[in-house]
Amino acid sequence: MISSDLNTPVLLLDKEKLMVNIHRMQSSADRLGVALRPHLKTLKSADAARVLVQSGARGITVSTLREAGYFLEHGFSDITYAISIVPSRLPEVARLMSLGADLKIMTDNMEVARVIASYANSSGIPYRVLIEIDCGDQRGGIKSDNEALISIVECIDASCAIFEGVLTHAGHAYDVNSIFAIEAVAKQERDVAVHAATRIRNAGYDVPTISVGSTPTGLFARDLTGVSELRAGVYTVFDMDQQSRGVCVVEDIALSVLSSVIGHNKAAGKILLDAGGLALSKDRGADKFRPEVGYGQVCDVDGQVITDLYVKSVSQEHGHVPVRNADDFKKFPIGSYLRILPIHACMTAAAYDRFALVEKGVITTHWDRVNGW
Amino acid sequence: MISSDLNTPVLLLDKEKLMVNIHRMQSSADRLGVALRPHLKTLKSADAARVLVQSGARGITVSTLREAGYFLEHGFSDITYAISIVPSRLPEVARLMSLGADLKIMTDNMEVARVIASYANSSGIPYRVLIEIDCGDQRGGIKSDNEALISIVECIDASCAIFEGVLTHAGHAYDVNSIFAIEAVAKQERDVAVHAATRIRNAGYDVPTISVGSTPTGLFARDLTGVSELRAGVYTVFDMDQQSRGVCVVEDIALSVLSSVIGHNKAAGKILLDAGGLALSKDRGADKFRPEVGYGQVCDVDGQVITDLYVKSVSQEHGHVPVRNADDFKKFPIGSYLRILPIHACMTAAAYDRFALVEKGVITTHWDRVNGW
């Protein structure tokens, strides 16, 4: 039982579900014959990283240099910083490397590559550089057939920096909601990465790392021949965004926001929770396939889904839950707890400094997080 | 000039604009003959509260008890906690009162009123209780003609707790975007609050506080006769949500996120910023009236609006800005700064521990914030 005097909203992390999810992706990586380098942008927690590494992960991925510093302090040195580097961050990268970080940085830009090469030459720091490839997501990265690809490799390779390999992310796996469609995106992700690597090898360079990944493609790829590692993050806890795309079932979701019923607006037919836009985030990522879910699926205090009960709108500190009938006001009295399954775990978790770990229905400990930049 | 080696994203607060905005609402309250009790849910900063009180504010409003504790520590004792109280929070309220807080709590529920009365009687703590009225927002509050209104007053008044008055918030002022329509909502907000107070007075009770407010209604109310105080928060900095409703002009917006250009996806025609969903929030509050703004208006490093340049989509750490033409890639090279005017200031600011204060174009100091619960 969850104790009744908590200062809600509280971010709960179900340890058993977490472990099942971690095992599921690790098994997928093992089956596909690639290393798993989990993306800690979701959990941002050294305790979580420890569990991941104990479960077979090789190295970690981060989304900020603050995360890189935090994980290094906690003993994790094999780190890929998977956001395009800007030159002003090279001194901080150098500092982290001097403290022992085996830190990989990333670019997709010739001018930035020249700056990295120049910094590396003048300082002697062997920056390790991945090139980002766009496999269809249209975020970062160059196309695998872009002429600049080989020029960037040449530029890095001719300097004191080290060319490490290629990296891509199939963010467009979130545009679909069938396993067959995800498989097709996973094939595209792999094919594009391998195509880029092949071009580079044909130009005479080694490509030690060929890194791909997203939660959907990591779980449903049929074949990753030629790929060396997989990156994914949200699979550790899942969320309604993933559920709406068929990547997990609702029972897999390990993250929830424990909230208190703080009001009954009977005239408007809604229950008010103390989990609003700040506590849940305003992510509407499930809208495309399950718009009825709004800002979160309502569950009881033990995490059992309550059918047809959703956080349909939010203000800063209020979540609005339309009731199904007047009985709901009796079932969920003021002061009672409800758990909300988040739409997008990464966004929701970022509002909290720590997770409350739930094991066999009881909060047993807390895991801290590193937020901000 | 903003120095070029900042660790972006950085939350900038323009001091001059802040002061103009503070003066504008204070003048409105003065003109209307009501006290101004600013809502610190937006700025969550003791430095900001100091400026507000020096500018004429009487007391403050908060949205969490953590804020109440923080502001008390910093010397602000006259505090209204404007979220429905749940019984489990009464011990913390008592603790803050014992430390010197003149803390007003709020309910709209008969059962909660009974619990407050019972706690007050058994502990001797004179909880000061406001009743929340729903003036059309359909969030918290009972209707001013609800029979329970007088029963709640009776219950509180018969105990060691103190009945303090009524409070309402015209959140539905955000449903409209003309000054005339806002004026009509402001009239409704005032009329409903005064109606509730009149019923209570007719039942034989004093009503010391009649509290109304929102940024739009606070600025555009024509007459607040019978009202004692005004609450509003986002007016201090404004945002694109307010601008889209005609409440401010874009030049009034005092809050912005300084971000770095981290990528040029020329194939997709977009600039990538290091201000994504976490740095800006995923609030889409401007969609109703200005959907083109997306997740934020792009400005140059000095805060000048760049016409037709918007953050159209976000992922966790990326903001995607479609370029107008190929020239934009030259104008905004990788590593250069852009400022983003947020959609919803309260949501955006919550991702940061502090504001960087900008005065005459230079960061002069930092103001800390209290986030979380």
This entry's quaternary arrangement is: homodimer
Mean pLDDT of chain A: 97
Provide the CATH top-level class of the largest domain in chain A: Alpha Beta
Largest sheet of chain A: 10 strands, mixed
Largest interface: A-B, 66 and 65 residues
Proportion in helices of chain A? 25-40%
- CATH names the topology of the largest domain in chain A as TIM Barrel
Report the principal-axis shape of chain A: elongated
Note down, in words, how this protein is organized:
- 2 copies of one chain form a homodimer.
- Chain A is α/β, with parallel strands linked by helices and 373 residues long.
- Chain A folds into 2 domains: 16-235, TIM Barrel, CATH 3.20.20.10; 247-368, D-serine dehydratase-like domain (Lyase, Ornithine Decarboxylase, Chain A, domain 1, Beta Barrel), CATH 2.40.37.
- Helices cover 32% and strands 23% of the residues of chain A.
- Chain A is built from 12 helices and 18 strands.
- In chain A, the strands form 2 sheets. In chain A, strands 1, 10, 11, 12, 13, 14, 15, 16, 17 and 18 form a 10-stranded mixed β-sheet that branches.
- The first copy, chain A, is elongated.
- The two termini of chain A are 36 Å apart.
- In chain A, 58% of the residues are buried.
- The model of chain A has no long low-confidence stretch (mean pLDDT 97).
- At the A-B interface, strand 10 and helix 10 of A face strand 10 and helix 10 of B.
